[in-house]
């Protein structure tokens, strides 16, 4: 009944394809300043289709690179938090009792820690490194997964096939891996589609504050911060990354909504 | 009721202790110290300053000293603003965030609740339209809306000031409140919309319609109330986040709030300042969740206050 | 005495359907060419297997059938044409002239509102009563269906009542505005045997004392035998048979009614462990 939103899927694919392809086929790169071509408006001359910034770097290529970084960070961070969260939630939900109480209490405590500021503090403290950025984001955003997976596992642990395996004397680790983990796939996919946009926003936010990607590397947040600084003279520098970011996040959210409705929660 | 309140507040104490300890360890584990950047300091001077802040003591001693201060409600001296205590800094900045966050949340509820309820009630096109707008709203972050609002209302139309606190003048509040409220409006709309949609499917709505009630009574008395339960659960933590200030809002609009203390403090290794704001946030979370549980018990009599 | 009611003719009937039908939004027929009538002060039992359209018939009379469904033919209620009517027509009848009693006494109450709120809003909507006066009337109505301590009950929430109390209160709520027609959808199915009898006696009393007409949907022939004057057997959206309760249950004419009766008797003979 809930078909995938075609427009969002296509738009997302176009963005991803553009992010991959544009830097290959464009004659420009994202980091070399060109002092003869600063602050150009969109033009076909020299293939600056969206113009250049104040250092003469091609806006389109920089946008594509920003997309690459955003998607990469989003995927990596989501996978990290997925790994921690699924393991934590599945063990807590399956073992139950004191182990569960302790593990979920830990999650509760971490929940009360301010999320974004903590990532800020982490990135400030441990250096401004892109790898660290996604480790930091991933390490803080696993709490939701852990809770969801725990609830799901608790339900699964009561099911006949799990009980049957227990009676047959299968090792708990094997039960978790073979019987429970595959049944968590639905929850996890839904969670993934809703987390990726959140991570994209977090990365852009940190880069906007100057804590994420460092010059000359770029990201949507870096471009937004640069654009906001020059918006009075060159609104295009703000609008382009803004539109790309909004489109990226909107499409992911839209697809995630539909998937969530499909999995019925 | 009172026993519930007391036990909930007491059970928050270990949580807060854990947060404080975690923050303490994290901050001290980081390389660098609060007086590293001032390179021109003579070693002797620097040593004296560090001694005056007890930074020369071993970490466990510093931790105990800090916890002792904290138990008296003293958040200690700030390193970055040498003649200020963290309590003073927070007391100065917090009203700014309280005003902006509070108004933003009020605005979000004032627009989001009726909009979500109306869209779910009408169904069809209105439902899809409100859903799409709300989805767009949560997809546009503050660091995009804030500059765009300034560009539109301050630079182009020149209706409102582009920034500054102006001692809390209404003109200065409009844009930051609006920028902060937009995503919250979207969240509130989405939550209320899906809540009302779910309630409308309930058998008791059929009873209410069979009783011959008007649209107003059906929607606002019968359908909306159960739908507000998830909204309140969302608003608890959201409120704590909103009134501890947004770094982006404060820096974009040049407001003297406490949100920037997190970033500035972390940059400058201002241990006590970061800890102070973290503790405030943790406290607010606890209080906000408690309030949310109380309100939900009022909204849904089946909810028992536990613990 | 009940014979007098049963003798109601079509011309004096309160509710009179002629070729009444209901289609889903996708065109699928739910009810086909129903013709029946219900006299003033009469109880008409509607029996049939699940999915035969009994409940949809009741809901459609109040314009509450599934979304996008449309009714055709004719169904006149006291001079008002209900078939194909618009929302305003249904609105003017709901609660005030035609009330409904639902099957599930828990889910049919709004869990977030007190019994008082849910009762008095009916009085406010249809009788213009508010405050003390409405409270008094609500308490009276609760007492009339045999509920003790009505004042205390008014302050309670639905989940604090037992199933039987909920259904009694639901009945009190349905007849608050003194409607002429009560549509009862399996009102006893979710209750234990003692409470079932109590509810049925209340229905019979309402008819006797207020002259209320009742369209009683059930799949329980025992219920029909106890209170109904006439019975109408439905199957896949059509009326299979209509007749006096006494004659029908003793010597059903049609094959389907006979099969239904046989099934019921067979069930009754079997002993089910509770």
Q: State the end-to-end distance of chain A.
A: 15 Å
Shape of chain A: elongated
Overall domain count of chain A: 1
Q: How much helix, percentage-wise, in residues of chain A? A: over 70%
Number of helices of chain C: 11
Residue-averaged pLDDT of chain A? 80
**Basic shape of chain C:** globular
User: Distance between termini of chain C?
Assistant: 37 Å
Instruction: Kindly identify the CATH topology of chain A.
Output: MetI-like fold
Q: Pairing-aware structural class of the strands and helices of chain C?
A: alpha/beta
Q: Any guess at the CATH architecture of chain A?
A: Orthogonal Bundle
List unreliable stretches of 5+ residues of chain C. 1-7
| Sheet with the most strands: spatial strand order of chain C | 6-7-8-3-9-10
* H/E element order of chain C: HEEEHEEHEHHHHEHEHEEHH
Give a count of the beta strands of chain C, DSSP E runs of length 2 or more.
10
Percent of residues of chain A in beta strands?
under 5%
Quickly name the level 1 CATH class of chain A: Mainly Alpha
Poorly predicted residue ranges of chain A: none
Looking at the chains present, what oligomeric state does this protein adopt? heterotrimer
Largest sheet of chain A: none
Q: SS-based structural class of chain A?
A: mainly alpha
What does this entry show, briefly?
The complex is a heterotrimer of chains A (265), B (307) and C (274). Chain A has helices spanning 6-25, 59-95, 97-111, 115-125, 130-140, 143-157, 160-167, 172-180, 185-208, 220-229, 235-262. Chain A is an all-alpha fold and 265 residues long.
């Amino acid at each position: 009944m809930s078909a995938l939103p075609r427009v969002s899927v296509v738009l997302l694919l176009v963005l991803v394809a553009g992010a991959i392809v544009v830097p290959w086929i464009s004659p420009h790169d994202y980091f070399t300043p060109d002092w003869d071509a600063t602050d150009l408006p969109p033009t076909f001359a020299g293939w600056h289709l969206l113009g250049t910034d104040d250092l003469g770097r091609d806006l389109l290529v920089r946008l594509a690179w920003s997309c690459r970084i955003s998607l990469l960070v989003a995927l990596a961070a989501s996978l990290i938090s997925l790994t921690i969260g699924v393991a934590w939630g599945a063990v807590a939900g399956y073992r139950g009792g004191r182990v569960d109480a302790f593990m979920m209490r830990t999650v509760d405590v971490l929940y009360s820690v301010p999320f974004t500021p903590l990532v800020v503090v982490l990135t400030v403290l441990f250096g401004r490194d892109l790898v660290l950025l996604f480790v930091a984001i991933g390490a803080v955003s696993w709490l939701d997964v852990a809770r969801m997976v725990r609830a799901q596992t608790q339900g699964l642990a009561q099911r006949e096939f799990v009980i049957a395996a227990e009676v047959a004397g299968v090792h708990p680790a094997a039960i978790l891996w073979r019987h429970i983990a595959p049944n968590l796939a639905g929850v996890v996919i839904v969670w993934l589609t809703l987390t990726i946009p959140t991570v994209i926003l977090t990365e852009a936010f940190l880069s906007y504050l100057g804590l994420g990607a460092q010059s000359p590397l770029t990201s949507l947040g870096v471009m937004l911060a640069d654009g906001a600084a020059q918006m009075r003279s060159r609104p295009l520098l703000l609008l382009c990354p803004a539109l790309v970011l909004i489109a990226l996040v909107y499409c992911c959210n839209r697809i995630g909504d539909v998937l969530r409705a499909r999995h019925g929660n | 009721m009172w026993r519930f309140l007391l036990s909930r507040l007491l059970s928050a104490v270990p949580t807060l202790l854990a947060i404080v300890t975690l923050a303490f360890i994290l901050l001290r584990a980081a390389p660098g110290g609060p007086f590293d950047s001032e390179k021109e300091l003579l070693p002797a001077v620097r040593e004296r300053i560090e001694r005056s802040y007890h930074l020369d003591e071993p970490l466990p001693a510093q931790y105990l000293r800090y916890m002792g201060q904290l138990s008296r409600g003293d958040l200690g001296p700030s390193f970055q603003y040498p003649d200020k205590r963290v309590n003073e800094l927070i007391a100065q900045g917090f009203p700014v965030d309280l005003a902006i966050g509070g108004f933003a949340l009020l605005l979000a509820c004032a627009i989001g609740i009726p909009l979500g309820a109306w869209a779910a009630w009408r169904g069809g096109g209105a439902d899809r339209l409100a859903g799409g707008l709300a989805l767009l709203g949560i997809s546009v972050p503050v660091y995009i809306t804030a500059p765009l609002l300034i560009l539109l209302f301050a630079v182009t139309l020149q209706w409102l000031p582009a920034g500054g606190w102006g001692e809390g003048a209404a003109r200065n509040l409009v844009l930051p409140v609006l920028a902060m409220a937009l995503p919250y409006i979207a969240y509130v709309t989405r939550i209320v919309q899906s809540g009302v949609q779910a309630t409308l499917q309930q058998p008791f709505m059929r009873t209410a319609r069979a009783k011959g009630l008007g649209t107003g009574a059906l929607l606002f008395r019968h359908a909306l109330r159960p739908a507000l339960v998830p909204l309140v659960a969302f608003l608890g933590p959201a409120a704590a986040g909103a009134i501890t200030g947004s770094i982006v809002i404060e820096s974009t609009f040049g407001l003297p709030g406490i949100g920037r203390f997190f970033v500035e403090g972390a940059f400058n290794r201002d241990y006590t300042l970061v800890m102070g704001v973290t503790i405030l946030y943790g406290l607010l979370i606890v209080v906000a969740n408690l309030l949310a549980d109380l309100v939900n018990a009022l909204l849904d009599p089946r909810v028992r206050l536990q613990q | 005495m009940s014979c007098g009611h049963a003798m109601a003719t079509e011309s004096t009937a309160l509710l009179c359907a002629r070729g009444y039908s209901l289609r889903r939004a996708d065109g699928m027929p739910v009810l086909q060419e129903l013709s029946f009538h219900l006299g003033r002060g009469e109880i008409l039992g509607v029996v049939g297997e699940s999915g035969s359209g009994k409940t949809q018939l009741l809901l459609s009379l109040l314009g509450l059938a599934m979304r996008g469904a449309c009714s055709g033919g004719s169904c006149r209620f006291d001079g008002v044409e209900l078939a194909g009517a618009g929302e305003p027509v249904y609105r003017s009848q709901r609660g005030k002239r035609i009330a409904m009693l639902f099957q599930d006494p828990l889910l049919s109450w709004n869990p977030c509102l007190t019994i008082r709120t849910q009762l008095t809003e009916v009085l406010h909507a249809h009788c213009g009563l508010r405050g003390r006066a409405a409270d008094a009337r609500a308490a009276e109505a609760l007492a009339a269906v045999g509920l003790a301590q009505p004042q205390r009950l008014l302050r309670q929430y639905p989940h604090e009542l037992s199933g039987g109390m909920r259904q009694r209160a639901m009945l009190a709520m349905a007849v608050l505005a003194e409607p002429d027609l009560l549509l009862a959808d399996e009102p006893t199915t979710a209750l234990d045997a003692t409470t079932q009898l109590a509810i049925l006696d209340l229905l019979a009393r309402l008819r006797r004392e207020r002259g209320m007409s009742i369209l009683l949907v059930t799949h329980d022939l025992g219920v029909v035998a106890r209170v109904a004057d006439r019975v109408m057997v439905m199957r896949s959206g059509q009326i299979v048979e209509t007749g006096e309760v006494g004659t029908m249950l003793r010597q059903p004419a049609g094959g389907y009614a006979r099969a239904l009766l046989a099934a019921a008797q067979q069930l009754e003979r079997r002993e089910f462990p509770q």
